[in-house]
Amino acid sequence: MAQCGPLEPPQPPAEPSVKPVLFEVFGEIWTVQARLGQGVSASVYQVSSGRACTAAVKQFQADSHHGGDYGFHKERTVLEDIQGHKNIVTLYGVFTNHSGVGVATRCLLLELLDISVSELLLRAGSSHHHRAQQGLSMWLVQLCARDMLEALSFLRREGYVHADLKPRNILWSADDQCFKLIDFGLSFKEGNQDVKYIQTDGYRAPEAELRNSLAQAGVELGGHCTAAVDLWSLGIVLLEMFSGTKLKDTVRSQQWQDNSAAVIDHIFGGNSEALPAIPMYHLRDLIKSMLEKNPQRRCTADKALLSPFFSVPFAPHIEELVLLPSPVLRLLNLIDDSHLHNEDQYEDVLDDMREECEKYGSVVSLLIPKENPGKGQVFVEYACSSDSKEAQRRLTGRTFDGRFVVATFYPLSAYRKGYLYQTLQ
User: Fold this and answer.
1) Around Cβ 66, how many Cβ atoms within 10 Å?
2) Which residue has the higher pLDDT, 223 or 255?
3) Where are the alpha helices (DSSP H) in 32-174?
4) Angle between helices 138-157 and 277-290 (to 10 degrees)
5) How many CB atoms lie within 10 A of CB 246?
6) Is residue 242's pLDDT more than 80?
7) Strands (DSSP E) found in 258-414
8) Which residues form the Protein kinase domain (predicted)?
9) DSSP labels for 209-220?
10) Is 387 designated active site?
11) Pick the catalytic residue: 63, 69, 147, 164?
12) Which CATH number fits domain 22-110: 1.10.10.10, 3.30.200.20, 3.40.50.720, 3.30.830.10?
């Protein structure tokens, strides 16, 4: 299963509706730890089974409006058909939950993922006052863009349109160190659109907007929306990540209708002092190619992946390293320079750090560079991300020798390549 230990995210506020305490899945009891989200047709819970496994359960309301379990069958069918791509949420299984009230509900057992792009944007919004750039770092925008384009490219090969791509449906996986697409409740086979209303307001492509309003007016529709609607949504998501602002009102404005390219130029112009110009223009042009009004002229996922934007290396912001869990921890403010140059002391420090870090899980490797980059920082690679999350939670704010420890995560790929970021804004 995805995680190898229980997670403890902040508990959501208590809700009046009754939430289940247990699920019985394939003869095993899973305990509900938190409600992660609630929509019109389903609720999502974090569940754990003993020490070894955590997962998510998506429980569908008994749904007579669509003739039975329409939402469940729809999402199950799509997910079963598209399993096996690293940027798509993993479906472990399906089951029926028989509650004491006598109502049987259909459920999906899914991999548990971490923070969503929606939450990342909220957190960035609250902490960007000390940075010149308002939005998320180019490193994060690039990472998310590449992962989502890979997912969309795969969906298109499989003949599917996601039809509800938005920040809340893009989640980080600490285990796989990438973003994944979730929530396939509105998805359909290209050329066979069985969903009347698609996409969420603010991320809806012009052709979907038109089709939705005609459907509302009861007009019989010929033709279908294509995979191009997903590229439009992703273009808006990337523009929001770059700018750090919600664009729902912007895309409704007359200015946007008249000349969306000028609005995009303005957004990029306002953010320019902090960033190198060339990669910023690559990103701007990539987003423009996704936000072509005419779906025939909009770029495809495969073509977008060839953008020069993806060949530029970037570094993350430090707060993103706090928010994006990874099996690797980076501990700051621990080691005195004097410890680094005395070989005996250095070995003692290594042993002490390993012993301390082993308290939270199995340590694969531990590195304390003696020179820059990374001089005196402690890098600890855990066997799995649930252990590093527990360690990060427990070590942050601790004092060693009168110093406050700062514990952030660190990208696994950079650590494995020996690439230690020198400075992080």
Assistant:
1) 12
2) 255
3) 70-81, 117-127, 138-157
4) 30
5) 14
6) yes
7) 328-332, 363-367, 378-382, 399-400, 403-404, 406-410
8) 30-310
9) HHHHHHHHTT--
10) no
11) 164
12) 3.30.200.20
Structure tokens at 197: 């209303």
- 117-316 to CATH, choices 3.20.20.450, 2.40.10.10, 3.40.50.1980, 1.10.510.10: 1.10.510.10
Task: Convert 30-58 to b/e letters by CB count within 10 Å (16 or more is b).
Answer: bebbebbebeebbbbbbbbbeeebbbbbb
Average pLDDT, the chain: 88
Query: What's the CA gap between 238 and 149, in Å, rounded?
Result: 11
Q: How large is the average pLDDT for residues 193-205?
A: 91
Cα gap 32→29, rounded to integer Å: 10
The string of pLDDT tens digits covering residues 298-349 is: 999 999 999 999 999 998 888 899 899 999 999 998 888 888 888 999 999 9
Tokens linked to 34: 């938190």
pLDDT at 67: 42
- Say what the pLDDT of residue 127 is: 62
pLDDT in tens, 383-404: 999 999 999 999 988 888 788 9
Domain ranges of the chain: 22-110, 117-316, 325-416
Distance CA 251, CA 206 (A): 10
Q: Are 304 and 289 in contact (CB under 8 A)?
A: yes
pLDDT in the model for residue 402:
85
Asked whether residue 189 is marked as a ligand-binding residue, the answer is no
